[in-house]
Amino acid sequence: MRQIFEGNEFAENPEPRALCVLVLDTSGSMSGNPIAELNAGLQRFKSDLVGSPLAAKRVEAVVVTFGGGVRVEGNPTTVENFSAPNLRASGNTPLGAALNTALELIHKRKEEYRAAGISYYRPWIFVFSDGEPNDAWQEAAEALAAEEDRKGVVVFAVGVDGANFDVLRQVSRKNAPVRMKDVGHFAEMFRWLSNSLQQVSSSRVGDQLRLEPPKDWGVIES
Amino acid sequence: MEGSSHRAASLGCDDAHAYFQAEGLLVLAVADGAGSAQFGGEGARIAVEAALGTLIDSLGEPVKDWDELLRNAVATARYALKAEAASRECPLSEFAATLLLAVCTPDCLTAAQLGDGAIVARQAGGWERLCNSQKGEYINETAFLTVTEPMQYLSTRVQPAADLEAIILLTDGLEPLAFNLRQGQPHSPFFEALYRFARRNEEVATLTAQLCNELRSDRLEARTDDDKTLVIAVPN
């Protein structure tokens, strides 16, 4: 069996998928302690989700960074196969290009699910930023809002310190952005995200999702 | 299907079924209450009764537009759920249920489906699924009578009743056994076995008891743990 199904992720694992695209700010201002905390948080995210047998097979993650340019770190994959990248901070803050990349990734991944006959949950885009975008982010925010309006995606945004919350409110319109207390709270933020994704990936038909408020790590910027 | 006999087996409290039979007319209704809804089982019973009642009323006169007739019955079922939810001051979603309907006359075979489950007919020896299970895009967002715009999920079918030999309605608890999951085609060994069984020359009550035992057996429970409802109609 191993030879037949190896390499075909959907034959090996036919579980429904809950995709989360992590859109993370790795601009120069994240250098030093912030990027170290972010990397540690990503490790935590992986280990939390792998601890849940169902989530390990259902939650898919992929990291898109924006710092100088936009990078996609690997392909979307279930968290059991996900390895947290070691991110480095440099350059400016092309948020808009990163959002466009995230949307393209989601469209492409949904097509792959459909072609393979795999069921899926509504994908998430989770945006984190510590700064002011320096590209044409407005168009990307409009495209994202339109996609969210037609229920194609769920968007959450978190900002810290130098983040522009007027921008983040335009990016994440259905769920108001959260201001993280300080960069020492990445671990709690990723714990919240992994808990929420566990809830989504085990939800059944007709279930109402009741996500926890950010509580100990942030404040909602409504 | 004049002179039909009916064998219905219902297990589990969140499913409901009902039928009406008169000369040259057979009306079948099945609903599956959502497990996550507080009053899903009640929702299923209310939906079945409301839809069946509307169909019987409308069938007193010659039918001009079958599709409209079916849509009207589904809309009435939804309205009945709304009225119940309003009178008990609780959210409509607590009565979430699917609905399957089939009407047979000597000329016409029609069916309507909203949500999971299946309506399958045997005509001239072949099995065919009459309606689609119109799911939402996402696995946890499936269609019920109680969603915001339910009619977008409704699938209907109107076709000649020529060589109609059996009609079977089943809820999603039995879908893993009844269909080839990949293509969604009826699994004919399953349906042929039911067809032969339903045509045995025995009392309906005896057959129903046997069918219930079979549906409860460990062999089947191992493959599907959901509520199961099966309604079979074959000519005498």
How is this fold's topology laid out?
The complex is a heterodimer of chains A (222) and B (236).
Chain A: H1 2-5, H2 9-12, E1 18-25, H3 33-50, H4 53-58, E2 59-67, E3 69-78, H5 95-116, E4 124-129, H6 137-149, E5 154-159, H7 165-171, E6 178-180, H8 186-201, E7 218-220
Parallel strand pairs in A: 1-2, 1-4, 4-5, 5-6
Antiparallel strand pairs in A: 2-3, 6-7
Chain B: E1 4-11, E2 15-22, E3 25-32, H1 40-58, H2 66-87, E4 99-104, E5 108-114, E6 118-123, E7 126-129, E8 154-160, E9 164-170, H3 175-178, E10 179-180, E11 185-186, H4 188-198, H5 204-216, H6 218-221, E12 228-235
Helix pairs in contact in B: 1-2
Report on the structure:
The complex is a heterodimer of chains A (222) and B (236). Chain A is built from eight helices and seven strands. Chain A has helices spanning 2-5, 9-12, 33-50, 53-58, 95-116, 137-149, 165-171, 186-201; strands spanning 18-25, 59-67, 69-78, 124-129, 154-159, 178-180, 218-220. In chain A, strand 2 and strand 3 (69-78) form a beta hairpin. The longest helix of chain A is centred in the middle third of the chain and has 22 residues, at 95-116. Chain A starts with a helix and ends with a strand. The model of chain A has no long low-confidence stretch (mean pLDDT 91). In chain B, helix 1 packs across helix 2. Chain B has six helices and twelve strands. With 236 residues, chain B is an alpha+beta fold. The model of chain B is unreliable at 1-7 (pLDDT under 50). In chain B, the strands form three sheets. Chain B has a five-stranded antiparallel beta sheet with strand order 1-12-9-6-7, covered by helices on one side. Chain B has a five-stranded antiparallel beta sheet with strand order 2-3-4-5-8, covered by helices on one side. A two-stranded antiparallel ribbon of chain B has the order 10-11. The chains are: A alpha/beta (222), B alpha+beta (236). At the A-B interface, loops of A face loops of B.
